[in-house]
């Protein structure tokens, strides 16, 4: 039999009675040492508590050793202990899938995860949280996925939780300051008003451990902060209910004027794109007129007038909140100008 045992965020201090009993009965006990940093002395304390040897699995042991663990569980009670909840990381779901494929019984003992704790312990309403996203180390491109997860959550009026990647094997990861820089780089690229120094955040460090710390502040006020060792998480609130503001002020001892509405500068993606297309089309229209003779200008006057009308309509529809009509109108304007290129009347560059 295979057992996946959640230790909770606090490790030894948060093991459930069921989890403790299962680990004590196990013939073989493994501990996931890859998906999250292991607190100091956890292995030693866990061995003492359950009276068993605990074998720590690195990435290779978890992924490539899965077949061997399944084979062991066919004749033994094998437990894989996981900090947090077993299914919070998709890595552990593979254990359940392989067990089912091998007609092997698999017991899952759930526990608290960092996501469940953050949605309930920071003074924010749990039902107002959106998509959880991991910010990974920079690979030469902006944090596109994380940035648009934040953007989409802010548009929907829900809070965002960022988990910061940490590579246990190489002892390197994303710090809160790294995360801020990655999001600011993405903001520079996409310019949708989702992140800036004025963004109010809650940074959670080493949640549920003895040296747990929370920082609630605008990003601009955190650049010189020493956040200590990982793991880290960041919450970016959306619009706050007055009870959420009161709770944050009470929990973190801050004044209400520190808290900003992170949705106030958000730009709808359609708004951003339509205005960009309108600007570019007007520039191309001006270029087209400058390349033509007076005779040709008179010949194409009706076409150019229609381009301008469509652009004006696009702006008007956008201001009325009719985003689809705004996109269609600017598209028609672009199409009319493109027709000149297709007919080889003008060589226009977009």
CATH level-two architecture of the largest domain = 2-Layer Sandwich
The secondary structure category is alpha/beta
The main β sheet shows up as: 5 strands, parallel
The CATH class of the largest domain is identified as: Alpha Beta
Mean pLDDT, as a whole number?
91
Q: How many strand units?
A: 12
Distance between the termini: 63 Å
Uncertain runs are none
The CATH superfamily title of the largest domain? Tetrapyrrole methylase, C-terminal domain
Strand order of the largest sheet: 3-2-4-1-5
What shape does the CA trace take? elongated
Total number of helices? 13
Annotated CATH topology of the largest domain: Methyltransferase, Cobalt-precorrin-4 Transmethylase, Domain 2
Q: Quote the beta fraction.
A: 15-25%
Order of helices and strands: EHEHEHHEHEHEHEEEHEEEHHHHH
Radius of gyration: 28 Å
Helix content: 40-55%
Number of domains: 3
Structure description:
The structure is a single chain. It contains 13 helices and twelve strands. With 350 residues, the protein is α/β, with parallel strands linked by helices. It has three domains: 2-112, Cobalt-precorrin-4 Transmethylase, domain 1 (3-Layer(aba) Sandwich), CATH 3.40.1010.10; 115-258, Tetrapyrrole methylase, C-terminal domain (Methyltransferase, Cobalt-precorrin-4 Transmethylase, Domain 2, 2-Layer Sandwich); 269-342, Substrate Binding Domain Of Dnak, Chain:A, Domain 2. Helix 10 runs antiparallel to helix 12 (301-319) and helix 10 packs parallel to helix 13.
Summarize this structure as a short list of keywords or feature phrases.
5-stranded parallel sheet, single chain, 3 domains, 13 helices, Methyltransferase, Cobalt-precorrin-4 Transmethylase, Domain 2, alpha/beta, 350 residues, Cobalt-precorrin-4 Transmethylase, domain 1, 5-stranded mixed sheet, Substrate Binding Domain Of Dnak, Chain:A, Domain 2
């Amino acid at each position: 039999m295979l057992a996946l045992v959640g230790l909770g965020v606090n490790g030894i201090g948060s093991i459930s009675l069921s989890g403790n009993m299962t680990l004590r009965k196990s013939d073989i006990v493994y501990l996931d040492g890859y998906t999250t940093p292991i607190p100091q002395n956890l292995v030693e304390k866990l061995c003492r508590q359950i009276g068993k040897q605990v074998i720590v699995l690195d990435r290779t042991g978890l992924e490539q050793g899965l077949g061997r663990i399944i084979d062991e569980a066919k004749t033994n009670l094998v437990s894989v202990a996981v900090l947090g909840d077993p299914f919070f990381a998709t890595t552990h779901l593979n254990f359940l899938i392989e067990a089912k494929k091998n007609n092997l019984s698999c017991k899952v003992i759930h526990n608290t995860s960092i996501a469940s704790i953050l949605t309930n312990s920071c003074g924010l309403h749990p039902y107002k949280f959106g998509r959880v996203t991991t910010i990974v180390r920079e690979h030469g491109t902006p944090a596109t996925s994380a940035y648009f997860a934040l953007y989409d959550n802010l548009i929907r009026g829900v809070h965002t939780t960022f988990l910061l990647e940490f590579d246990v094997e190489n002892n390197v990861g994303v710090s809160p300051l790294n995360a801020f820089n990655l999001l600011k780089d993405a903001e520079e690229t996409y310019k949708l008003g989702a992140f800036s120094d004025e963004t109010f955040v809650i940074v959670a460090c080493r949640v549920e451990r003895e040296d747990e710390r929370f920082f609630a502040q605008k990003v601009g006020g955190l650049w010189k902060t020493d956040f200590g060792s990982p793991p880290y998480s960041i919450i970016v609130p959306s619009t706050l209910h007055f009870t959420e503001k009161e709770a944050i002020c009470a929990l973190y001892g801050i004044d209400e004027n520190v808290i900003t509405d992170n949705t106030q500068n958000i730009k709808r993606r359609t708004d951003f794109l339509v205005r960009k297309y309108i600007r570019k089309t007007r520039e191309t229209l001006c270029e087209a007129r400058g390349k033509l003779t007076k005779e040709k200008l008179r010949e194409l006057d009706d076409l150019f007038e229609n381009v301008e009308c469509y652009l004006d309509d696009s702006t008007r529809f956008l201001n009325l909140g009719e985003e689809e009509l705004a996109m269609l109108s600017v598209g028609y304007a672009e199409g009319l100008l493109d027709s000149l290129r297709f007919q080889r009347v003008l060589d226009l560059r977009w």
